[in-house]
Amino acid sequence: MQTIYTDFLVVGAGLAGERAAVETAEAGFSAICLSLVPARRSHSSAAQGGMQASLGNSVMGEGDGPDVHFADTVKGSDWGCDQEVARLFADTAPIEMRRLAHWGVPWNRVVPGKSIYYKGGKQFEKVEAEEKEGLIMARSFGGTAKWRTCYTSDGTGHAVMCTMDNRCAEKGVEVHDKTEAIALLQDGETCFGVVARCLRTGELRVYLSKATMIAAGGFGRIYPNTTNAVICDGGAHTMCVATGLVPMGNMEAVQFHPTGIVPTDILVTEGCRGDGGTLLDVDEKRFMNIYEPEKAELASRDVVSRWMTHHMREGHGVKSPYGEHLWLDIRHLGKEHITGKLREVYEICTSFLGVDPIHQLIPVRPTQHYSMGGVRTNKDGAAYGLKGLFAAGEAACWDMHGFNRLGGNSLAETVVAGGIIGRKIAEYLEGSEAEFKTGLINDEVKKQRSRIDALIEGRDGSENVYKVRSAMQDALHKGANIFRTQEGLEKCVADLQEVLIRAKKIGLRSNGKGVNPELAAALKLEGQVKLALMVAYGALMRTESRGSHNREDYPARNDRDWLTRTLAYWKKPEDTLPTLEYEPASTVVEIPPGDRGYGHAKIISADDKKE
Amino acid sequence: MSRLLKLNIFRYNPEDEQSAPHMQEFVLEETDSMTLFIALNRIREEQDPSLQFDFCCRAGICGSCGMVINGRPGLACHTKTRDLPGEITLLPLPIFKLVGDLSVDTGTWFREMYTKTESWIHTNKAFDPTALEERMDNKDAVAIYELERCVECGCCISACGTARLREDFMGAAALNRVARFLIDPRDQRTDRDYYEIIGNDMGIFGCMGLLACEDVCPKHLPLQNQLGFLRRKMGITSIKRLFSK
């Protein structure tokens, strides 16, 4: 068996992981990123919109600055975020965008003079300043006070990913692609690498490192309908959960996007509604104007998703072989607009659905989109529970998003956090000595081999991995979705506990030889069910509504009792429920909790005396 | 009643001594808006869990799912079954090393390509975190992005006659990559530097002009224009070299 040593090991080769690896490589350390897929295929590359940073170059961004960006982020989080982290992020984002420009990102630039833009389907005019010509341009995005989102046409993630991966190649950061980490190496105090499975041959490999980072993205694939890539399955999270020592933060905070297309759940941009598109039901009637007379389709993501789900529950959904959905109508915007300003939407509809949005309705439904929760870290990106373990990006709960993330803040977070945490890791590497315990390594490898053999031989049972996975996804979909109630969540937790028993009895139907995809799915399933239980149980216990977490039976945001972050542990493998602990949402408070200015209005203030 | 699709899929697991390359037939009922992404996943989950294929974003952005679909390299994620006849033949992309069934190793090929083309901005300017960004014409930025849209699916390489004949041919994706840096004002490399990389049979002079690369590119990149552009540029460089000796 091959053993590979490096100073810094990253599980994941998306923007957060590669950015941190570049930082340590520049400080003179060796760095290896493990990736399920070739580096530029990471889910970071799928982000189209852009990255928020308060450069204020566009005329519509005048007066913007880190303070405004910080305030938007804290409000967006519904005061669930760590304000110290949000401040660090808002202050650093402009520098990181400029650094990316220096490294090669082809940001769109300011073109001086008159131009047209649309808002709420109406046309407006703006004039960009001469003296700003050639500086980084920004576009408008939901939930932001200013035009602040830096972009490269409609492929920001892809363009930044190319530049970052180029930088890795230049700085000697290795990307070991088609490699899947399956277990952490740790002695109860310190993490010193991983056991990984080669996805070219199926062989096990050991990676030893002084510092290890989880930067593997979100875990949307534990839901049946998600905009996430198929690799965003929480596999890396499951390794952390399996230690029993590392908590997941705020797992119940799951963001849903209103317009995933049916059946493949690819996202069509909010711009459709921004430009005047409407949502229709089975009778091809508008309904958002009934529920939200003022903002209608332009209410915030969470609000629109909630009403769409409500409307389908009331029996107005369109039935299809892929489940119920609603319609998005952009036909009235006309061919020129659709093939111009909404080119990407046009291409998605024609290429993936065979639907021509100039003449036809687009089938859409609210879809799991972003995991605010993840591996809980401090502001330096160091994971709770194990020394030498770090996390960044969507995989982490760093926690600048709290209970709701603003558009354009996720992609920016990957690079900004990767840079900040990468520097902290370089400092850590400078001052630490590694100790690799060969006995523990052998034991862990043996344990993983035995897990694999048990699955191949069907030693523990003959449950079908795909059926059990489906059962998990269905339980979450039914109980821990956009609307949550005590009854629904209790049922969800009970169902998931049954699924957990089945997940321990998987037996493969194929021979498990080589790269076998059934084995890959089976190895992570039990851990995925535990993640699902953390989502559902955390949501059951949190008796309030905050950001994306909506309890129909507790509609108020309760700052008196719940201005907290949930920490979910899986203390013993045989446990049937996670252990929940709580910590204050923020120890530094620049902006005291107040009204966000949108969404639900009822707040139980922290000042209210406890009864 | 929907169509019953017949899929003939290439099967071979190099890591299993019992396995020999062969075609296997699967039958599947077609549903509305079915793509090959949906069809292949359904086959794996319901009929044969060992079937290997690659998908990642399943939205035409990442380039994972290049395969030969009824004789033509393309992305499986945005291939709708209703645009295909009832009998569909799927083969792995040629040229790249086979991992198993429909899965090939494009990662190694592309990583080597980055090294050969030194795929990064060459500059002696240092980044100053306290300064404003260096200005750039928006037209340049847009032109660079148009070439950077390549998703490294490998379809152009698999469809390339020269790449079939000689292993060391860099192919359209690599030449497109060079063009991306050549037009970037931030990159300080000279035409002569680029000539060292592509001014040979492995580069611009190897292409036979069969145009398949551009025909199959799922992102519709102007691959032949780039080749023409580089050839003109390198031709001039070559003549200058002759006279300056």
UniProtKB/TrEMBL annotation, chain A:
Domain Fumarate reductase/succinate dehydrogenase flavoprotein-like C-terminal per the UniProt entry, residue ranges: 469-598
Topology of this chain in the membrane: Peripheral membrane protein
Keywords for this protein: Electron transport, FAD, Flavoprotein, Membrane, Oxidoreductase, Transport
Location of the FAD-dependent oxidoreductase 2 FAD-binding domain: 7-411
Origin superkingdom: Bacteria
Listed SUPFAM superfamilies: FAD/NAD(P)-binding domain (SSF51905), Succinate dehydrogenase/fumarate reductase flavoprotein C-terminal domain (SSF46977), Succinate dehydrogenase/fumarate reductase flavoprotein, catalytic domain (SSF56425)
Catalytic activity annotation: a quinone + succinate = fumarate + a quinol
InterPro entries per UniProt: FAD-dep_OxRdtase_2_FAD-bd, FAD/NAD-bd_sf, FRD_SDH_FAD_BS, Fum_R/Succ_DH_flav-like_C_sf, Fum_Rdtase/Succ_DH_flav-like_C, SdhA/FrdA/AprA, Succ_DH/fumarate_Rdtase_cat_sf, Succ_Dhase_FrdA_Gneg
PROSITE patterns: FRD_SDH_FAD_BINDING
Enzyme Commission (EC) number: 1.3.5.1
Protein name: succinate dehydrogenase
TrEMBL record, chain B:
Record PROSITE patterns: 2FE2S_FER_1 (PS00197), 4FE4S_FER_1 (PS00198), 4FE4S_FER_2 (PS51379)
Pfam families reported in the protein's UniProt record: Fer2_3, Fer4_8
Cofactor(s) the protein requires to work: [4Fe-4S] cluster; [3Fe-4S] cluster; [2Fe-2S] cluster
Enzyme class of the recorded protein, top EC level: oxidoreductase
Keywords: 2Fe-2S, 3Fe-4S, 4Fe-4S, Iron, Iron-sulfur, Metal-binding, Oxidoreductase, Tricarboxylic acid cycle
Residue stretches making up the 4Fe-4S ferredoxin-type domain: 140-170
Known EC number: 1.3.5.1
SUPFAM superfamilies noted in UniProt: 2Fe-2S ferredoxin-like, alpha-helical ferredoxin
Database matches in InterPro entries: 2Fe-2S_ferredoxin-like_sf (IPR036010), 2Fe2S_fd_BS (IPR006058), 4Fe4S_Fe-S-bd (IPR017896), 4Fe4S_Fe_S_CS (IPR017900), Beta-grasp_dom_sf (IPR012675), Helical_ferredxn (IPR009051), SDH/FRD_Iron-Sulfur (IPR050573), Succ_DH/fum_Rdtase_Fe-S (IPR004489)
Signal peptide: none
NCBIfam families reported for this sequence: dhsB, PRK13552.1
Family recorded in the similarity comment: Belongs to the succinate dehydrogenase/fumarate reductase iron-sulfur protein family.
Protein's recorded name: succinate dehydrogenase
Source species of the chain: Pseudodesulfovibrio methanolicus
Source organism phylogeny: Bacteria, Pseudomonadati, Thermodesulfobacteriota, Desulfovibrionia, Desulfovibrionales
